[in-house]
Amino acid sequence: MPHRRATHGEPFAAEVAAVRTEFVAFVTRLILAADRDVAAESFAARADATPGLDPARGLRVR
Fold first, then answer.
1. Cα-Cα-Cα-Cα dihedral of 31, 34, 35, 37, to 10°?
2. Angle 40-44-49 (CA atoms, 0-180°, nearest 5)?
3. Global pTM?
4. Distance of alpha carbon 19 from alpha carbon 2, whole angstroms
5. What is the pLDDT of residues 9-37, one digit of tens each?
């Protein structure tokens, strides 16, 4: 029987689990980065529309 790549069993399942973990971590980082960008843009837009708010520091200027 010719050599076939293992596509089942414990070694394959372990590799799939490792790749899944890496993929989930990568996608999570992408989502968090996008969320930070959207939050920053949203805050900047609100700061521009709010008199007395310093958008660079997020504090009211006295």
1. 160
2. 150
3. 0.52
4. 27
5. 788 888 999 999 999 999 999 988 888 87
